[in-house]
Predict the 3D structure of the following.
Amino acid sequence: MKQHKWLLPMIVLVFSALLLNACSFSVEVLSTPTSSPPIPIIPTYTEVPPTLPLPSATPTLISIRADTFSMIEIFKSFEMGEIVRSLAFTPDGTAFAAAGGNTDDFAVHVWDVTSGQPIGILSGHSNIVWGMAFSPDGQMLVSVSSDGTAQVRDWRNGDILKVLNFPGEVTSVSFSPDGQSLAVGGVDESKNQIQHAAVWTYTVGSWNPLSKYPEYLNIAAMAYSPKGGTLIGGGTSRNVQVWRTNNVTPVFTLSHAHQVTKAAISPDGSTVATGTCVTVENADCKEGGVWLWDLPTGKLMKKLAGFPSMVENLTFSADGSSLIVGSRDGTLRVYATSDYQSVFEVTSPGGIETLALSPDGGLLATGAANGEIRLWKIVYRP
């Protein structure tokens, strides 16, 4: 009986300890572990300090239209150093890229629109950069150069995803509206010297060749129709070909008296505007102009003249209400597309070599031969 008296309390004590241990174990298993949220890694380029942020959201902007152009002002300026030959905005308008060069600085420079701070410098080309295009999803930037390459990049971290090589210099580039195809135009130095330019198209992602559209001399002007299905290209030959993207045979040939620098298609796909020269004296353009074509029929509709020098670039406003034209002497002129009457004109110091409109229509960028880039926006002053 004495043995049982001390044994029972011991059993109770051991059982209680085991029960406490079991309870402690179950609580530890069921408890929710806590951890700090992951710290986002901001990709940067090697040429700039790693502390620079990615582009910030742009403020609400008044759309650049035929009826608002009278209120346009320069609100930011940038210096690239060498002649600016190409400009492009990201699809969301938070950043823009500039490139060109003449004897030096063949890099692509990227800036934040809102802060005006540089985001990165993309090196890699060894000669003049003639054209650039952001992919519709904003992930990639493609640049084309006299070095005979098109470089596809993840522009946020500077990685080169693909290098496309060509027989000669390439001068124009464009993504299809659906982002599935890339078109590159330039010199095709084949044995047939009569036909030695082309537009090459590729499948985006795999970068497999799709089609080759033959042309002559070089491809200075190229554009996809905003609604898809049509590609135009040419310019140096004095012709601009109109192709259906499912057929490499030209549907129409838009013939000009002189070379074409750039071409643009209206947002509704009805009109092609081509920048050209009207009067040439001693191989120098004395008067620039714009020719307007009906895209469905290929017929010339109207000629706009009176520019003091060669028209270097042009674009339609996002809503299609205006045509924005820049010439080498610095003339920036705007036409209302309702009747193609001039509604605005100003002279930009240093000339205009290239221009670009942000996809939302809120910002206009112009680039000059002296390396200066100007951003324009509508400023309402009640």
Summary: Helices lie at 2-30.
